[in-house]
Amino acid sequence: MNEANADLLRTMYQVALTIRRFEEAAIGQYRLWNIRGYFHPYIGEEAIAVGVISALQPDDYIVSTHRGHGHAIAKGHDTRLVMAELFGKATGYCKGRGGSMHVSNLGQFNLGANGIVGGGIPLATGAAMGMKQKGSRQVVVSFFSDGASNNGVFHECVNMAAIYRLPILYVIENNHYAVSTPVEQSTLLRDLSKRSESYGIPGLSLDGNDALRIYQAMAEPLRRARVGEGPTLIECKTYRHGGHHINDPGAYMPKEDLARWKAHDPIDVLRDYLAAAGVTEAAIQTIKARVEEEVAKAVEFASQSPQPSEVDFLQEIASL
Amino acid sequence: MNEANADLLRTMYQVALTIRRFEEAAIGQYRLWNIRGYFHPYIGEEAIAVGVISALQPDDYIVSTHRGHGHAIAKGHDTRLVMAELFGKATGYCKGRGGSMHVSNLGQFNLGANGIVGGGIPLATGAAMGMKQKGSRQVVVSFFSDGASNNGVFHECVNMAAIYRLPILYVIENNHYAVSTPVEQSTLLRDLSKRSESYGIPGLSLDGNDALRIYQAMAEPLRRARVGEGPTLIECKTYRHGGHHINDPGAYMPKEDLARWKAHDPIDVLRDYLAAAGVTEAAIQTIKARVEEEVAKAVEFASQSPQPSEVDFLQEIASL
Amino acid sequence: MAMLKYRDALRLAIKEEMERDPLVFCIGEGIGERGGSYKVTDQLYKQFGPGRVIDTPISEASFVGMAAGAAIVGNRPIVEILFVDFACLAMDQVINQAAKYHFMSGGQGFVPMVLRTQGGAGNSLAAQHSQSLEALFYHIPGLKLVMPSTPYDAKGLLKSSIRDSDPVVFIEHKLLYMTEGEVPEQEYLIPLGKADVKREGTDVTLVTYSHMTLKCLEAAERLAAEGVEAEVIDLRTLVPMDRDCILASVKKTGKLVIVHEACKRGGIGGDIAAMVVEEAFFDLDRPPVRIAGKNTPIPFSLNLEKLCVPSVDDIVEAVRSLG
Amino acid sequence: MAMLKYRDALRLAIKEEMERDPLVFCIGEGIGERGGSYKVTDQLYKQFGPGRVIDTPISEASFVGMAAGAAIVGNRPIVEILFVDFACLAMDQVINQAAKYHFMSGGQGFVPMVLRTQGGAGNSLAAQHSQSLEALFYHIPGLKLVMPSTPYDAKGLLKSSIRDSDPVVFIEHKLLYMTEGEVPEQEYLIPLGKADVKREGTDVTLVTYSHMTLKCLEAAERLAAEGVEAEVIDLRTLVPMDRDCILASVKKTGKLVIVHEACKRGGIGGDIAAMVVEEAFFDLDRPPVRIAGKNTPIPFSLNLEKLCVPSVDDIVEAVRSLG
Ligand SMILES: Cc1ncc(C[n+]2csc(CCOP(=O)(O)OP(=O)(O)O)c2C)c(N)n1
Ligand SMILES: Cc1ncc(C[n+]2csc(CCOP(=O)(O)OP(=O)(O)O)c2C)c(N)n1
Ligand SMILES: [Mg+2]
Ligand SMILES: [Mg+2]
User: How much is the pLDDT for B132?
Assistant: First the structure.
């Protein structure tokens, strides 16, 4: 593996680990009641955000989901401002108006998380139409999970992206569950990417825990998108390391399945790649330390930030 | 061809011809302003309603579309009461409340036409769930056209029917247009039945102008449905003989296409089968005469029926 | 009488009706083995099995329409939408199909379905999980609309809703599920369309429903300490609405305050105020006042969220301002 | 000044804005070569091509959401829904996405889209093609709502709507498309939120919008013959609403009749009546009256359909009944 690759792997590893530690720290803060509302951890699925987003240009758009912290961090958002948004603070990306389910950062081309399952798919498709309109080479990635793929907007949008040949990648993060409903119970298909055939576009199913393979697999879909050949449907198979949200113990997830997937942890997969690329344990420890520091700072920043101003808020909504 | 078949063919021919003449007569009445609102003729598509519905038991359900007169007549509805509904008269199946886009007749298991494209698909799927619930052997047929198949409810419902193994047939009447939009412009697929694969169920594409072939092809989907094996997606390819509705000249339909499809008129196809089965020209003329008489009576009945009572109406809605 | 939680009273209503009528079934997301997000259908899967407590994919538009279809062919489905916010996905099936079918079929068909859902702010769930959207259903002819505030009402009204022959939208409030109240051991029904005077009073009429009933009762206690006796009318059913109950109370008190959590603009309060003014203008000593939610999407931050919903203070203030 | 049809005034507005700003585009069903069901986009396809006048499959939920997405990234889409009835399919994208995005993003993003649609009864199109559903949008914070009654207003307001940075729901009326009126040759804009006094009067205030404006004007002529001078206020924009204009008129006349085609229950009339009562109770000589559509799905038969919508007679009667 050449030096370029080692650099890429180091970055991927650092980002994936940042997501993992960020989620763990935020869960800790949730337990302290510093974070409220719904919280859907991305733990176990990091390779998808990291693999897909590393393949993008900085000005390519993403549209995220209710399980969206990983996408935000992979897109390079300031973890302090993400954490502050989770805390509902004035310094968060959405000034505390959005929270975990609505983190967005237009400055870094993240149109945002969404509380409506599937709700982001039309927004993403529309953003891609906007790019086509403007003659831009920017691409849009629409993230969603297996549950969302059974919603009507999935069908409508993939079909429209196909006929208009829009520059978009539909990425199904198949974590095998929609809350407690196993994917086998809501579709008879094994590979969700097969649905691409209904729209006459290419589809692929990938190991969703292998960020490098995902990164590599993005080349052709991105090429297609940029030259006006249209969308690709990409399934990344993965698994949550816990329940649907923080307060769901996930008792319905078979222990063996969980163990098997944990043995194939996306962070470990990246670490093994790093080792194979000759990156030393010391270098890895340095990355870890950097990540720990960043996440600690994010928590500190969020903790010390002020609540949103009530006066400003009342003024803001007076015209609505 | 044996006698049973000749009987079946005679009936099919008579029903198809009744639909054709009914539509022609109703169009004439529309031109006289005796019928108002939207009117979507089924002319050219008769073989589908006839072929599919002849294969059903009388207590099997159908759910129709905005282009629904053919389904109603094939289901054995009294043409007088259908015509009266088109006239908006008190004697119509829906007492003039529904009109062309909402003809229904629960007594003969027709849940009705629908003004919302795709709107009947969930109702049909729910009716099938009701049948399964009750342990009934009744089957439901959901009719809709190519345009509706790009709506989200198509995707959601076929998927649910597949996972619940509901007793339902989804019949796409692919007449190649959604108003003026050609099917090639709204999907990249050639055979819409291919979408069945997205749901792990069988699909078939048929000549939609050949009622006998359609009838024969229903055997296996109906068997599956009745024994709990689940839904089938059936595409019948056909063509309108005119514009989308009465007031649409359909100028966008290429003349050659129209001519080709008219040369393959579903009524003629049945007539050729009859001839091949040895049915005499005289016998055919007898059927024709019977049809003319029935349609004339329907028009007369509708013409002479009273308008819905305004007093009754105001009383009826007082509690809403 | 047993003390029951609101959610348990709802469950009991469903259980009793499912035992009584094999045509009743439940359909929704995660309502089966998991028992639903708010545990209303807990244990029902065990008792009735997957054929009558049916988990769905995330396909709201269609499974609501399926409930309507099953209702037309004779079943009595209870369909659950996790948050009323998500009912927006199913609006076509609710408004254009379920609500109109009986009428459009010329009275041939009935749609005896219940759409159970849940709304309201208070848990920092932000703009897409905190709305009060009852006004959207209220405006549509052909729907009934029920929003109970107590375990007792919840049980009796849900049973009546299940037996009703029209589509009923039944909206619970997320802050009510864990509230407790007395519920008789014997079976009872509460007819749709009857308001309940939750507190009698002579000085001012508070008309409200759902969670705001609790706040109005609290406000009434505070007002009583100041010597003002408020009558608290819990509408319970919004369609049909018990106008007689409202008008009788206003006749007595001459003052009307309408309280709801939904946004003021286009909320049901306007309709009630207009109705009272039309029917009883000269009974009124003061113009009716509406205390309602702010015209804003609900913010995530708890400190902002609480500003969007009427407080007990707001209600007390409003009554005081009537003099 | 040229005499133009309502539909042609709308087309001119779109054409001018598309010429002015390359980020404006149109999307909807059959709006391209076919020019739309009501011919509002006729010829635009020829001028601007398939990249800016985009025909869609029958996928309302998604193409409305796509308009929102394109708006967020900087375009100014005009999305057409053939009938407001079908907007029910897109309610999630309108209510949960477009309306809330600006707020939820903490002000980062804007959604400058126009949802053009068409409503109302009168053509025997039955229950699913004749509704007046503006109240559903009126209640949702984050949306603006425009319903013009004349070609002049249609053009000026559509241009302002296209330039607005918020999502605007723009509802036309099927009976207005062929009506004619004067439209200046030069460019003009009408600001959102300004009502128009379509007729001055001193005896009674008629507050209305959309097609009912024409009926109110006709009623006012008939009343004038009886010596009653009605002031006719055409709201034009429902959100934001020009309360000052209404209140000033009521202050003058002391009598208020609100007229709309939408069902009375939960219609916008209640909100206006309640607002006027709250703000100007003591200016009122009589209780405000609402003349509105009947609470029923619209029947197919023309003789029944006409009973569902306020007539000129109904308006005249209502004013007379005020004494
Ligand atoms: C339209 C809609 N329906 C239901 C919900 C409630 N809900 C939140 S997350 C979720 C499961 C989503 O499953 P999936 O799409 O697989 O995403 P995952 O949680 O696995 O990432 C559900 C049902 C919702 N937020 N929106
Ligand atoms: C949800 C919805 N969108 C749009 C329309 C307007 N409309 C009526 S028929 C029609 C075309 C339907 O095409 P298709 O499904 O192919 O049926 P066909 O007319 O060919 O039988 C359209 C767009 C509608 N009635 N409902
Ligand atoms: Mg999932
Ligand atoms: Mg078609």
Answer: 97
